[in-house]
Amino acid sequence: MADLSGVLAGLEEQLAVSANLLQDIAIRFQTAMTAGLLGKPSSLKMLPAFVDVPTGQEQGTVVAVDFGGTNVRVLLVELTGEGQAQIIARRSFPLKNKQANYDFTTASASGMQLFDFIAGKIAEIIPTADKTYPLGHTFSFPCRQYAVNEAELISWTKELKTAGVEGENVGQLLQTALERNGIGHVHSLAVINDTTGTLLTSAYKDNTTDIGTICGTGHNSCYLEPVHPLTNQPMIVNMESGNFDQIVQTKYDICLDQDSEKPGGQRLEKMASGHYLGELVRIIVSSLVANGYMNGEVAEPLNIPYFLSTEDLSTMIADHSSGLDAVASVAVGRLGLNELRTSELVALQTIARFVTTRSARLVAATWAGVVFKIDPELKRRHTIAVDGSLYEKMPGYAEYLAQAMKEVLGIGNNQVAIRLSKDGSGIGAAIAAATVYSPH
Ligand code: GLC
Fold this sequence. Notes:
- Residues 211-434 form the Hexokinase C-terminal domain.
- This protein is an alpha/beta fold.
- Helix content is 42%, strand content 20%.
- The protein has two domains: 4-43 and 211-420, Hexokinase, domain 1; 59-192, Nucleotidyltransferase, domain 5.
- The protein is globular, with a radius of gyration of 22 Å.
């Protein structure tokens, strides 16, 4: 068998984000932000959200829809003011379900079917038509906003393909579906990105929050621009930072990109988000197997795209057993590699860790870029609100982020806190809707 440890060392080098590189990416990110904000060419879309941070006093019972990719969640949220938000009902539904024989994510499904499905689910949690309910809608895709309730989908990301939604006003699509489904007493008042929701939820109780990030199936960040050029007022800006492209791809990243739904787009997201990390590891491992560095054959399931998931990486990374039993079971079940030696199991775990660490360090570099842009001398406190399964569940991920922030900000890092904004993307939609009907 060829020299596996040499190959691992090479991989480590290719996937490393050194302290210098963190700094370099942060500065490039800052430059891309400035360009995008001024409407100059930039990989950052810098989409105005037409939302400012809340006061914490917003109140009411609000329906929230959280639509971000694999599932749609509908919530009934009670905002009591004083920064308190409580979920009083919640349901979650997959957008595709083989047994139930539906899939709203493909090009053969229409936007109308998709929004009828969502409206039907909202109907299930709305008690009666006794009164009108405001609704906030988290729609986690790049949208051109003209107002808080006017959001046009620019293009799908995260491999969704539903027909007839790109270029449409998403708030209107949902409102029409609500009416078609007999729940016209629910009024869609705000459409926001999930990063905005995450920021708003944290800002509702902590006014130092000025960055919101999702590290989940997808990846993206928004921030509070202190003086937005459009309004000369503070405004949240959805950067669509998953599309940031000033980062060097390895040949594995290029391979993943070429076979993806939108080659060339979402470069950072494809290197950093949960939808792709498992696939990246699968591509690396199949190349090691093909080149004889690991025992096995490139046959099913190793050659099935996206068969290895990011949860599988979590399982492997969390394995501290002496025989690496969990790694072995992923190797057998998800990669079809039955006869790996311990050194090869260690290699699998190590590759999963390299890919995950790189993800966190790239994300941290972009956060530093935002901080450099809004507060170069770090005079104020900043809180970065994060939601998403990768951040919440991947062993070590939060620590890698914190460590990279320390490296890139130095002593200034004392001014920056990173906090989980649990369910932020959904609750934030309720807060956004509440700021509309009780404007401050
Ligand atoms: C994708 C979407 C973006 C969203 C992110 C996280 O990057 O384009 O709008 O915020 O996923 O869900």
